[in-house]
Specification:
globular, three-stranded antiparallel sheet, 114 residues, mainly beta
């Protein structure tokens, strides 16, 4: 299946060391993070521990600290740092000409709760 990219925002629309939430019909939403190097990452806005909103966490390096219990989640993989365990869904993302794109099919289908 070929990828269909959907424009989400501009890189500068995402706060440095913060996140922007992409609302979608398939809950939970998606969080797009930006670090100090302007690297952009997309994860399900749900910590693998207790479901905390990762978009409200603190970004440092290529990790985000969950605001509920301070679990550290790797932004490139969505996985918790040891000794914590578990992963949240990551989303395909690309940046071209300062525009952030997400895979439209993943946005519509990944991590849909039943």
């Amino acid at each position: 299946m070929s990828q269909e990219w959907q424009v989400i925002c501009r890189v500068e629309d995402i706060p440095v060391l913060g996140a922007r939430v992409v609302a979608r019909a398939a809950k939970p939403d998606v969080a797009i993070f930006r670090n100090t190097e302007n690297k952009v990452f997309a994860l399900l806005d749900k910590c693998p521990h207790k479901g905390g909103p990762l978009s409200q966490g603190i970004v440092f390096g290529e990790r985000v600290a969950c605001p509920l219990h301070n679990w550290n989640i790797e932004l490139p993989t969505g996985c918790a740092i040891s000794p914590d365990e578990g992963c949240t869904q990551k989303f395909s993302l690309k940046v071209e000409a300062d525009q952030v794109y997400l895979d439209a099919n993943e946005l519509a289908t990944l991590a849909v709760e039943t």
